[in-house]
Design a protein that fits this description.
The protein is α+β, with helices and mostly antiparallel strands and about 190 residues long. Helices cover about 45% and strands about 25% of the residues. The longest helix is centred in the N-terminal third of the chain and has 31 residues. About 25% of the residues are buried.
Amino acid sequence: MNPNDAQLRAQSELQSGESIYWTGTADPRRAAIAALPAAFFGIPFAGFALFWISQAYHATSSMSKSTNNSFVHGFQVFPLFGLPFLFIGLGIVLAPLWAFLKGGSTVYAITNQRIMIITGGSTRLVKSVTPADIVSIDHRERPDGSGDIVIQTTGTNNSTSQIKVALFGIPNVKQVAQQVMTLHTQRPAA
């Protein structure tokens, strides 16, 4: 997505009295790299599910061959119970691919009232972080000046749990992190 498309997508989500300070797009590669740890967990998960299905199939097929009992033949569907776990494992293994595809259509925007993360094409999801939601801001800068910004926010209804919101692959991460800090310090006193 080019910068003009990102700007237009962010402008289409503005509320009255809101103005844009910065817009940018996600780097899909950085989002995919961030999802790699989950993929490593998915490999043994899917592998065990596949092993379980295989063993259940061999056990039930040998049982049904040895007897002509209809009750025993009912166990032939037993290996199918492992399929949901196999699909979940494969989904976890493919997490970097999903993150890459999602990152290609993600736009970030900082306005005078909030931080927006806009994902999707024709059907959009807009996640907004207001200054009152921000607990802490961290950024990781790479040697080329690009990086990621991780924002800790309060949970729903100001609960004690916190949620991380990440902006991946920001080209000028230091300046954007400063804008997020400025937005955070502008919040009204409670």
